[in-house]
Amino acid sequence: MVNVMQTALGALASNCYIITTDSKEAVVVDPASSAEVLDFAQKNGLKIGGIIITHGHYDHFAGVSDIKAETGAPVYAPELDAEMLISAEKCWAWFMRGVEFKPVIPDKTFSDGDKFSVCNIEFRVMSASGHTVGSCLLFCDSLGGFFAGDVLFKNGVGRTDGYSGSEKQMWESLEKISALDGDFRVFTGHGETTTLKAEKMSNPYLNEL
Questions:
Q1: How far is CA 137 from CA 89, 150, 151, in A?
Q2: Residue 208 has pLDDT above 80, yes or no
Q3: Average pLDDT of the residues of the chain
Q4: Do the strands 75-78 and 108-110 form a parallel or antiparallel pair, or are they unpaired?
Q5: Burial of 132 (0-12, 13-18, 19+ CB in 10 A)
Q6: Domains in the chain and their CATH numbers?
Q7: What single string gives the DSSP state of each residue in 106-151?
Q8: What is the reported pTM?
C-alpha cells in the first residue's frame, strides 16, 4: 500500500509530500527544507529512495541538497526547469528569506509524456507550462491523483510573472487540465489539497474555460 503525508515547510509554507510504501521506502516531493523530512524518516524507520522536484522555484527544492547529501537519494526534476535549479536569481531564492542557496543538479530529468518509477511507485508526466516552462502534473495512480506543483491550487492557479513564466501557456495548460476525464486528488504546492472535480466546479480560472 502507498500512503502520502503532507507538511507545509519553509518561509512560504510550501507543501512537501512524503510518499511511503509498505517496504518502508519513501519518496519526497518538493522539500523546502531538510530537517523536518529527515526527522520524519528517522522516526518512522523510512529509507528515502528518491526526491522529486515539481518545478524550479526555490521554495520547492531548498531542502533537496541536504537530503541528497544525507541519504544519497537520486533527484528527479523537469528537464525544462533544470537551469533554474542552479540559479539563485532564476529560481527566486530570495523569497526564502535568508536561507542559503544550494544549487541542485538532478540525477534524472523528465518531460511531457514520460513515465518513471521511484521506489516502485509509478509516475507519469503531463506538461503544464505557465508558472514555469517546466511545470507539469505528476500523475501517481497509486494515490489516485497528481502532484500539481504551483500550477493548480484550491480555487486558484500559480502566478506567471517569474522566470520562464507565461500567462498564455498557463491558459493553455488550464485548458488541458479542464479536459481531463474523471476525478483526481490534487496535491497542491501550497494550501489545501483538493480534487479535480471540485476545481472544475468552483475554481474561477477553470470556470472561465
A1: 24, 10, 8
A2: no
A3: 97
A4: parallel
A5: buried
A6: 2-207 (3.60.15.10)
A7: -SEEE-TT-EEEETTEEEEEEE-TTSSTT-EEEEEGGGTEEEEETS
A8: 0.98
